[in-house]
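Question: what's this shape?

___
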Amino acid sequence: MQHSLPPLSALRAFEATARLGSVTAAADELSVTHGAVSRQLKSLDEHFGVALFTKAGRGLVLTHHGEQLQNGVGEAFAKLRDSCTRLKHEVEEAPFTLACPGSLLARWLIPRLDRLNQALPELKLQVVVSDSEQPGQPETSATLAFFEPPWPDEGELIELMSEEICAVASPRLADACHTSHPASLFTNKLLYTASRPQAWPQWADAQGLETSVLKTALQQGQGFAHLYYLIEAAVAGLGVAIAPKLLVEDDLKSGRLVAPWGSIETPARLCLWLPKHANARRSESLTDWLRKELEG
């Protein structure tokens, strides 16, 4: 007699047939054909060298040897089912924790958070402010942020949209500018954030503006620690700010801000970063929702 274990698929077919008393019922439960279960049972008879079932009317009953095998196999599969059920319940009941930079959270995600919760209640979404420019905070399920190459080495990065940046100002301040040419911005105080020092140079270069003029204007400008404060300063008419278009779209639609000098695309992308062992089903549903919201 062989001392190696028989195939798990054969033991599974045996356990289902023994529990249900029917090859047909076992095949239905396992979503396979009647013939497939019969072949698995026959392979077990050959493996052990004894018959495990005998016919009884239209059904099957265990032989003495079959009862011996069922005592161990039935208990083992019951424990497997319980373990899988508990794990699945734990994973599905755990909240999905999404890390997000404060400015993106405050100006884009929070206004849409109610729609997200209504669309995906099973996520049990919890949102935390990311405390680093890099993804992978402890205990987070995903990170939503703008990333620039080189991309993170670990995990999976799902690109959602290209980043565009634009120079924005309050309508009153914009009216006072000569908006026909971007150079008119330099007659006003430029607002910037330390976290994105490359934003103004990228925009100015795309507009064909002189770097030296920009450098002088920035020296006379005002910096802010966070994009959120920067944009609010622009709304208050303190100067002209440079910001991701996504974060000011609602202000542009409402008329709180205007962007008469246009926008440019940067190398950055809005991405959803997923850790290596992310829950695929929950991550995919969030990705689909984000894409539809951004397209809308």
Summary: Residues 284 and 290 are 10 Å apart (CA to CA). The two ends are 66 Å apart (CA to CA).
